[in-house]
Amino acid sequence: MDKELLRQINQLHAEICGGLSDPKRIAILYSLADKPQSVNELAAALETPQPTLSRHLKILRERGMVTAERDGANIYYALADKRIIKALDLLREVLGDHLSKRSALAEAIS
Question: How far is CA 62 from CA 1, 57, 65, in A?
């Protein structure tokens, strides 16, 4: 594969991962897994101030993880691709395995 093309792919990959680098953004994505929601609905569900949520949604939109659709005065956000939840779930499985190994090490030391 061409080095420049590989560099660009890696850059895009890093940008997507950067969108997942904040716990609040992960919570937003999981919250949108079932249905589109407005900023106010998300703010209430996640107990987060609306301006904070808007900043996180902007990052998720820029990275192509959520879409925004206006309906009158409201903007509804939805997952751009439901596979993002599968990816997050897979990462949680990896995390669970990692924590299990650490737990086993801690028990061995005790």
Answer: 27, 8, 8
